[in-house]
Write a structure and sequence with these properties.
This protein is of the alpha/beta class. The chain is built from 17 helices and 13 strands. The strands form two sheets. A seven-stranded parallel β-sheet has the order 3-2-1-4-5-6-7, with helices on both faces. Strands 10-9-8-11-12-13 form a six-stranded parallel β-sheet, sandwiched between helices. β1 (75-78), α5 and β2 (98-103) form a beta-alpha-beta unit. α9 (158-169) crosses α10. The radius of gyration is 22 Å and the shape is globular.
Length: 435
């Protein structure tokens, strides 16, 4: 991609990097979800900025990065989370020239020590941009520039530091699994400016609120993702539908139970704890013979131990330690709200139902799973009881076929071979880029 694709001013680049943060969707997130990201109180935001400056900006200056692997001329697999790592690790295993890379202090869960780091020591040098950037964003974004001032502060300097790193290491290409986090978008813009080829491997379900696809090669799971990205804006580069690489080794172990006995509940930071507690109370009362397991999102900082005190029979899955497919493989049904875990459950032939735990503040049926008949829906607890009773008596063995719109390889000779397909397409693309 040419440098002309990159906004020419620091404010323009920050607007591009933070575009998801300035949407109505982000601003409408529930208070308990938004608070850890950007506190509502301006004093807490200023305190957060001060903490970031002391711990990250100044702290990184005194921490020299020493990587165990050579980064020059390699294919970078850039990760921003544990889920990203799980989605891209197959490329690391198959390609000797691939290295896993993350920002200097980025938290990658249980893989923190297994990724190389890009130094952010010089990020502090670019904060002279802040006054002009803030004034420009105030003109374009209005009050949201002040409401999310801490996020603007955090994002400054990523682009410049990453451009410097790209000039120093000259990677052959950068492969992303995230297209909307601040640091990932900064690296994407830096790659565009430096002429570094970029590829994207979809790691979870997408929505029409995401930024437009801006990669040279995008390996998407299915038609659903491509249709949604087309609604996000112009789709740049080449796109291929490859299925879900991270699911390959689990598709042969689809659930064959004809009745539901073990029920999984997945929740994330959008879900309201009192509503979740009320649902569990109802389920334990109505279904004393069923087994229930709760899996909070790995990034959810809330304390769920009170639920186990209320329900000693409630089991827990630690998302930071247990792979989502391993978790789902131990169950026959899934109850959850807006999460891509519904798709993963249906791929393994679990019965899955959409239940909103309170008013999450995001669009109803965010991923359109109900609208496209991937899963069922229960708007009240009695409706949930009826749904569960029905599947207690009979769970179809062909539920997974509903996922064909989301997984392009389902029912084809490539089913279960998405990793091989992605590797082949990526390899061919890299050869073309190298010519």
């Amino acid at each position: 991609m040419s440098e002309s694709a990159v906004p020419p001013t620091p404010a323009g680049r920050l607007r591009d990097i933070l575009q998801l943060r300035f949407t109505d969707l982000f601003a409408s997130l529930p208070a308990h979800t938004l608070e850890p990201i950007s506190p509502r109180s301006p004093w807490k935001r200023l305190l957060k900025v001060a903490g970031y400056a002391a711990v990250r900006l100044v702290g990184n200056v005194f921490r020299k990065v020493r990587n165990p692997e050579e980064l020059r001329g390699k294919v970078w697999l850039y990760v921003v989370s544990q889920n990203n790592y799980d989605s891209l690790h197959f490329l690391r295993e198959a390609r000797p020239d691939a290295v896993l890379v993350a920002g200097q202090s980025k938290q990658i869960g249980r893989y923190n020590r297994q990724v190389n780091r890009l130094s952010l020591r010089r990020k502090l040098l670019y904060y002279g941009q802040l006054p002009a950037v803030y004034r420009a964003l105030r003109r374009t974004e209005g009050e949201r520039a002040w409401r999310f001032f801490d996020l603007i502060f955090n994002a400054i300097g990523y682009y410049e530091v990453y451009r410097r790193a790209l000039r120093h290491y000259r990677p052959r290409a950068v492969v992303f699994a995230n297209d909307h986090n601040d640091d990932a978008r900064a690296l994407l813009l830096a790659c565009q400016a430096e002429g570094i080829p970029t590829a994207y491997v979809q790691h979870a379900s997408v929505s029409t609120s995401f930024p437009p696809l801006g990669f040279d090669l995008s390996l998407l799971e299915g038609q659903d993702a491509l249709d949604k990205y087309r609604l996000c804006g112009p789709v740049r580069g080449r796109t291929e539908l490859v299925g879900m690489p991270k699911a390959d080794s689990f598709l042969a172990r689809r659930n064959q139970e004809p009745r539901v006995r073990r029920v999984a509940l997945a929740c994330n930071t959008l879900d309201d704890l009192p509503a979740l507690a009320a649902t569990l109370e109802y389920l334990f009362t109505e279904f004393p013979d069923l087994t229930f397991t709760l899996r909070p999102h790995p990034g959810d900082p809330r304390d769920f131990t009170f639920l186990q005190q209320l329900h000693p029979g409630l089991r827990f899955s630690d998302a930071r330690q247990q792979n989502v497919f391993e978790f789902l493989g131990e169950h026959d049904a899934l109850i959850a709200a807006d999460t891509s875990t519904h798709l993963e459950a249906v791929l393994l032939n679990l019965a899955s139902v959409y239940v909103r735990f309170g008013n999450q503040g995001v669009a109803d049926d965010y991923y359109s799973f109900v609208a496209h008949n991937l899963i069922g829906r229960a708007d009240t607890l009695p409706e949930l009881r009826t749904w569960l009773q029905r599947h207690q008596q009979h769970k179809p063995l062909d539920l997974y076929r509903r996922a064909a719109y989301y997984n392009a390889t389902l029912g084809t000779p490539d089913e279960g071979h998405s990793q091989a397909r992605a590797l082949r397409l990526l390899g061919e693309w890299l050869q073309t880029e190298g010519q």
